[in-house]
Amino acid sequence: QVQLVESGGGLVQAGGSLRLSCAASGSAFKLRLINAMVWYRQAPGKQRELVAGITKSGSTNYTGSVQGRFTISRDNAKNTVYLQMNSLRPEDTAVYYCYVTIFGTRDDYWGQGTQVTVSS
Fold first, then answer.
1. Average pLDDT rounded to a whole number, residues 13-31
2. Residue 102's pLDDT is what?
3. What is the DSSP annotation of 37-77?
4. In degrees rounded to 5, what are phi and psi of residue 65?
């Protein structure tokens, strides 16, 4: 098993910044096999959407609305993924979830989510 714990959410004014963290813990075997690390978000009344993802080798992808404002990074030694969010907008308000996949298996894991609220 792998447990994911997100942190860093909160209330910020439009134009501000937040940095989310997601730390993975649990099975040492599975931690070594963490492949993709992804941030999703879900706003009230909307479907969960992919925000940004990063592979173990560092390749990244972003949804269009956050391109140029958000930066995803990871520290493989710490089994942690980060999401630096700049120039935040009210429409970025959502619960942000961390998600990881395990290489060579069908296992995947979700964090419990962290609330990000951007006031106008």
1. 96
2. 94
3. EEEEEE-TTS--EEEEEE-TT--EEE-GGGTTTEEEEEETT
4. -70, -15
